[in-house]
Amino acid sequence: MYKLFFLLIAPLLIFACGNKTAGNKTADNNPVDTASNNPPVETKAPNSSYKPAFKGQTRAPGVKTTTPYEGKVLTDKLNSPWGITQLPDGRFLITQKEGTMRIATNTGELSEPITGLPPVVNAGQGGLLGVTIDPQFESNRMVYWAFSEKTPEGNLTAIAKGKLAANEKQIENATVIYRATPAYNGTLHYGGRILFDGKGNLFISTGERSDLQTRPQAQLLNSALGKVIRITTDGKPAAGNPFLNRNDARPELYSYGHRNVQSLAIHPATGDLWEAEFGPRGGDEVNRIEPGKNYGWATITYGIEYSGKKVGDGITQHEGMEQPVYYWDPVVSPSGMTFYSGDSIPEWKNNLFIGALSGTHIVRLVIDNNRVVGEERLLANEGQRFRAVTEGKDGALYAVTDGGRLYRIGRK
Ligand SMILES: [Ca+2]
């Protein structure tokens, strides 16, 4: 009761006193900013002593969802799910790391595993990864997915497409349309998200394969490692890609300088592509992706090596390299994400929701003018590694976890 009194009366008192503390000035103008004095959700010490490039780039003020909501476990019978996308009829198509897909109803009934996909390297961070469906799925039943493929030269992130059979038991005519070369003998940092760009092309994300040997390729335009890539549904470079006219660059590249991108989403109001990527020890990032730009890894980072040493020269800013919109130190390990475009929980509109693996929660970021102005942790008591989040047509969020759960997070 006292708190409520304080919230109602304090702004009046400040106003009446002529407000010498101007920091909270916008509080009455924008409901998003009412929490700008709240402490950040992160309370642990950072690994590095790096300073953010601008206010709010890390440890934004904590916010709290006010609409009553609940996270309900619909099933716990999935086997290491990785990607999730909604079908036109409201059910969900979900990949399992082992190399199969399942269909789940929005009450949690699961189909038998869907087979017929090319073999995957189900080891380390590899396996069957992200999935999306064709914008014309209702007429063509086409599905697109990312996976770890074994080749004679090593493993790589590959993209394939195929038709979901009428009986929903197989993928028919599975065809690999793109390979993010070079291959490498390792099982880490495959990236692996995939989504349509709104113009009929596919955005896909890769990783730099983790080792010091392959890491520099994130900066190289003649390598597909550590990139966001844009291709047609036939695997060709998309029209309008930023490096189409350069001899020294691969035409499928869209942005570069990434470490390991497991999150891609398009902002429902601006149409911009956003991504999140894993940092090393500290330095997980959220970026707004513009074509042709360099996102800095491994020249700039807010993280340090797992050994505790600095990465490269230990710098966080460099001419010609983009600053992350937001970063975490310590890490949360951001995997699949989505923007919320529904009306069911009004304060979530255009917020970004990210599955956190080591963080074992769902990150909610309130974004205003391409900056993060609030952060909340959802379902932090569940103890689950959240692998991916998508939005349902019913205005709820649906999330899968490494432990095999499918959650519905919606209005109570
Ligand atoms: Ca970066």
From TrEMBL:
Coiled coil: none
Any Pfam family the entry gives: GSDH
Sequence segments annotated as region (Disordered): 24-68
Domain Glucose/Sorbosone dehydrogenase: 78-408
InterPro entries: 6-blade_b-propeller_TolB-like, Glc/Sorbosone_DH, Quinoprot_gluc/sorb_DH_b-prop
Ranges of compositional bias, category Polar residues: 24-50
Keywords: Signal
Span of the signal peptide: 1-22
Protein name: PQQ-dependent sugar dehydrogenase
Organism: Ilyomonas limi
